[in-house]
Amino acid sequence: MAKANETQVPTETEQNNLKIFDKVSNSVNINHKNCSYCSKPFTEELWCKECDPHHMIEDWTSGNNDVDKFIKDTIYDIRNINNVYNAQFLEWVPYHLIGLKI
């Protein structure tokens, strides 16, 4: 059963610098008000419109420049919306992380 005072906060794994969400207690000393990259206030809960889209697209490629540009454009478009909770965008997921078997 989830605790009422738990919040999803991003953590980084060492493998591929993937951003995953893990539930941790609010009692942990985490700044829930400012971006850890630029120190500016979050535009939404745990979301920085300037930094998060950039970090979502660094160091990956689909192997197809047109596909890469299309995905990156949808991510960069997030900066132009008022409410990221209603945002729709694409994110590249490398095949080996999907866990599909052929």
TrEMBL record:
Domain of life of the organism encoding this protein: Eukaryota
Protein name: Uncharacterized protein
Organism per entry: Rhizophagus irregularis
